[in-house]
Amino acid sequence: MKKLLFILLLFGISLNNYSQEIQIIDEVFESNEVCKKSFKIRIKNNDGRVQRVDIIVTRNKLETAGDNPTLIPIYQHSFRHRASIYDTPVINVSDFNYYDIKVVAYRKRISSGASWRKDLKLFRCNLDGFKKYLLEPRGETEESAISNQCKNSNPLVENINLLSPVQLKVERVYRMNIRGIGTYYWNVKSASSIANQFSPYATGSPEVFGPISITCNDNGGGPDPVDTSDYNLQLLDSDVFVYSSCVTCPSQLNILNPNFAGGTFPINKHLMTTEGNTVQTQFLIKNVGRTASKPTKINFYLSDNYNSLFGIKANNKTINLPSLKSGDEFIVNPIFTISDFGRQPGKYYLVIDVEPESNDSNNSNNFVSIPMEVKSGIGRGKNSFFLNESPLNSYIVRVYTFSGLLKSTHLVRNRIEEKKVISKLPKGLFIIKNDKETYKITN
């Protein structure tokens, strides 16, 4: 009996010795912090008799798990020596999301008698918060987009995952800057609130503008007259999303200070610094009237008072809003720095003003105010936004949500201050990027 137990024990040790593993190490992320830009692969081998390890990494163009894959090698190598650890050099990945890693180990240096095999599926992006779209490219200019849309041409359709808080409308054309593809006008063929990890392309926070207004006339001549007698352009706090250096601020404006309608400056406010950090916005304008709207303009002001246009108008930020049919929506996502307004530190309201003409049936729902505090980016007092007593030794710490949206930027002097920043974050998953590394934390 003891002999049998001894044999079983040796057998178990032997199995453990030959256990293998594929690891992804030294990951480098893109600026959105949800998609990998490069990485290395580490192969752990516990079989001392292995003399050769082959690895191949392929870009997989699966649209769904059941399709026949189109495999395009991006890296392959044969290690021809004994080792317990094999590390690849840096492997750069592009905009495709789905990759296959295959490893085969041999006890001889010729390709026969495999000792073990391992496979790993690698997804370049963490797709939490992404939406899947089927998009048709309509051209690089608005004129070509209108022409192609009216001709109902049927070009190649791209299956793309996008990170955007606003859902794009089906059968509408938007101008989008999609990383790896460029700036094009796209017709949305279908939309899903759930991302497809097998889709080839994934991009975080694309620049979205639209949809553009397209009127096709089948009878020749100019476009048909448009009735604009009773429209209602609406901009609500619940349709405005703001991302700033404020760690605890929710992105949706109506949640920042519920039911706030002016008066004493609110406690919760977004942050902007004189050192040039950005405030990113995305908002949705709707025509809830009975007829199409007239083209108008959107302007932005940094004002001392709530919903007041008697402030500093942003330089070169005016947006031309096209005519919207009844029920149509339009997405805008401008980015601001303090240099757009040239104001000193203080408490202000960033006013978004849609300026319709007199035919708009309701002029009380055309603007919103975002509470904003402008602080000096460098200071020595305990209330300074950034700590910077030793500028030469300081470094930037950026905090991102797990879906890749920038929440805050901090200048810290050491790792202790970096940990203090992290300790003040609310509960949730966050990505931290400093001068040397990118890592994930859970509070």
Overview in brief:
Helix content is 9%, strand content 41%. By secondary structure, the protein is mainly beta.
Describe the structure.
9% of the residues lie in helices and 41% in strands. With 443 residues, it is mostly beta strands. The chain folds into four domains: 17-123, Immunoglobulins (Immunoglobulin-like), CATH 2.60.40; 130-209, no CATH class; 233-375, Immunoglobulins (Immunoglobulin-like), CATH 2.60.40.10; 391-442, no CATH class. Strand 11 (173-178) and strand 12 (182-192) form a beta hairpin. The longest helix has 16 residues, at 2-17. Residues 4-17, 63-67 and 378-393 have low confidence and may be disordered.
Label the CATH architecture of the largest domain.
Answer: Sandwich
| CA-based gyration radius | 27 Å
Regarding CATH, which class of the largest domain? Mainly Beta
- Roughly what fraction of the amino acids lie in strands? 35-45%
Global outline: flat
Distinct helical segment count? 4
Q: Structural class given helices, strands, pairing?
A: mainly beta
Provide the helix percentage.
Answer: under 10%
Distance between the termini: 52 Å
Whole-number tally of structural domains: 4
Q: Could you name the CATH homologous superfamily of the largest domain? A: Immunoglobulins
Number of strands: 29
Identify the strand order in the major beta sheet.
13-10-9-12-11-14
Rounded mean pLDDT score: 78
What is the CATH topology assignment of the largest domain? Immunoglobulin-like
Oligomer: single chain
